[in-house]
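Why does residue order matter? Because the sequence determines the fold. Keep that principle in mind as you read this record.
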Amino acid sequence: MRRRMAELLVYRTFPLAAIAGIGAMSEEVAEVARSYTADRIPVQVRSDWYY
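Structure:
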Protein backbone atom coordinates (compact mmCIF):
# COMPACT_ATOMS: atom_id res chain seq x y z
CA MET A 1 0.00 0.00 0.00
CA ARG A 2 1.41 3.36 -1.00
CA ARG A 3 0.99 6.20 1.50
CA ARG A 4 0.96 9.89 0.74
CA MET A 5 1.23 13.13 2.62
CA ALA A 6 -0.17 16.44 1.51
CA GLU A 7 0.49 20.00 2.45
CA LEU A 8 -0.93 23.24 1.32
CA LEU A 9 1.28 26.16 0.44
CA VAL A 10 -0.52 29.47 -0.04
CA TYR A 11 0.71 32.75 -1.46
CA ARG A 12 -1.11 35.72 0.08
CA THR A 13 -4.73 34.51 0.28
CA PHE A 14 -6.81 31.36 -0.04
CA PRO A 15 -10.60 31.01 0.33
CA LEU A 16 -11.44 29.08 3.50
CA ALA A 17 -14.59 27.80 1.79
CA ALA A 18 -12.32 25.71 -0.47
CA ILE A 19 -11.12 23.60 2.50
CA ALA A 20 -13.38 20.64 3.29
CA GLY A 21 -11.62 19.71 6.52
CA ILE A 22 -8.37 19.29 8.41
CA GLY A 23 -6.90 16.02 9.67
CA ALA A 24 -4.64 16.20 12.73
CA MET A 25 -2.33 13.61 14.23
CA SER A 26 -3.48 14.09 17.83
CA GLU A 27 -6.18 15.81 19.86
CA GLU A 28 -3.61 18.36 21.03
CA VAL A 29 -2.78 19.35 17.43
CA ALA A 30 -6.48 19.31 16.52
CA GLU A 31 -7.21 21.81 19.31
CA VAL A 32 -4.53 24.16 17.98
CA ALA A 33 -6.01 23.88 14.47
CA ARG A 34 -9.49 24.56 15.85
CA SER A 35 -8.23 27.68 17.61
CA TYR A 36 -6.95 29.02 14.28
CA THR A 37 -10.07 28.17 12.30
CA ALA A 38 -12.60 29.33 14.94
CA ASP A 39 -14.71 26.22 14.16
CA ARG A 40 -15.31 27.36 10.56
CA ILE A 41 -13.54 24.26 9.20
CA PRO A 42 -14.11 20.75 10.60
CA VAL A 43 -11.00 19.37 12.33
CA GLN A 44 -10.73 15.64 13.04
CA VAL A 45 -8.07 13.50 14.68
CA ARG A 46 -6.90 11.13 11.95
CA SER A 47 -3.71 9.51 13.22
CA ASP A 48 -4.09 6.77 10.59
CA TRP A 49 -3.26 9.37 7.92
CA TYR A 50 0.26 9.74 9.31
CA TYR A 51 3.18 7.34 9.18
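Helices lie at 27-37.
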